[in-house]
Structures are given as C-alpha cells and as structure tokens.
Amino acid sequence: MSETSRPMIDEVDLLIDNARLRDELEPYRDDSIDDPTMRYMPLPVENEYLASILAWERAPALPIRDWFDPPLQIPAPESLDDDSLSSVLQRTIEKLKSQRIVLSCTDHLSDRELYRVIYRDILPCCEKKVAVEGNELEWRCVDDNETWLTYYADAVERRRFQEEHQIELPKARKPRYRRDAR
C-alpha cells in the first residue's frame, strides 16, 4: 500500500463512522443533529460531536448518589458538629470530583450551608451520567440572581444584567468563604 492511499482510507473510515453514528442517532433525531454549523465541522470533529450526542441520549438518568459504587451516603447535616462536618464535606467534594462533578459559586456558603446543598439538592438529583472523556457536570450553587450579582458576576456581566432588566443592582461584595470546589 502506498503512502498516498492512507489518507483516502482514513477519510473512508471517517465517512463510515459518520454514517453509523447518524443511523444510531436516527431514533433521537432533533435539531441538535441537524445543526447547520455541523456543515463547517471537519469530519473528525463532527464524528466526535455525534458520538457525544449518542452517549448523552443513551446515558441513564440516575440520582447522583447512585453514580458511586456503593451509592454515596453521607450523614445528615444536623448529625454532625462543625469539625466533623468540615472533614466530611472535604471528602464528599473530592468524591464528587472523582465522578467529574464540580461545584461552582460556593464561596458565599458556609461549610454547613454547602453540605446541606450537597445532601439535600445534589445527591438525590437525577442527572444523566455521560461517560465521555472531558465531560463534567457543573453544579452552580447559586439559585438566584441577587446572590450571583453580589458575589460572582464581573463588572461586564453586572452592567449587561442591569441594562437588560432595568433594575438597581446589589452592591458587589467578596464572598465570606474561600474554597477551591473545582
């Protein structure tokens, strides 16, 4: 086989993979598969994109606690004193990271408040567990605009929000707690 025929074989393999992926995606067909920007994607990138959509469609939706083997069970927040809670919180954040679950916007929460969010909101929440390299589930631990605007929005985001909503913004402040939840 000559060296000049190898790129042609690679291109054929990519086209065959593309056709296979499109066939497998047919039952899930929607606008994301027919995205017009895909026409400008190189074939390897398009195949990677289609494979990630297929992985998403086939992924099971499970409570996050069940992403772990055995399922992740942590003590109720009220059963822990402050020192124990901080230690369990650190271990829990590390376990979440091991499943590519990252927490953001946590610095306005005390350790106990963050632990409650994990215990009450994150672990029981059903999410799709997608086994695609580089894929992360980011859990933003802020659920209202005022908190986001106060602690996390930069000057441009604050200005844009104010222009869009025509409201008085809360004063920007530094969060009380510093942690590296990522």
- Choose one word for the global shape: extended
How helix-rich are the residues, as a percent range? 40-55%
Helix tally equals 6
Mean pLDDT: 88
The class by helix and strand makeup works out as mainly alpha
N-to-C terminal Cα separation, in Å?
49 Å
Q: Strand tally, please?
A: 4
- Oligomer class: single chain
Low-confidence stretches: none
Strand arrangement, major sheet:
1-3
In this structure, how is the largest beta sheet organized?
2 strands, antiparallel
Q: What string, H for helix and E for strand, traces the elements in order?
A: HHEHEHEEHH
Cα Rg? 22 Å
Query: Beta-sheet strand percentage?
Result: 5-15%
Report what the structure shows:
This protein has 182 residues and is mostly helical. Helices cover 46% and strands 8% of the residues. The protein contains 6 helices and 4 strands. The chain has helices at residues 6-25, 43-58, 82-98, 111-122, 145-151, 155-165; strands at 61-63, 101-104, 126-128, 137-140. Strands 1-3 form a two-stranded antiparallel sheet. The protein has a two-stranded parallel ribbon with strand order 2-4. The termini are far apart. The mean pLDDT is 88.
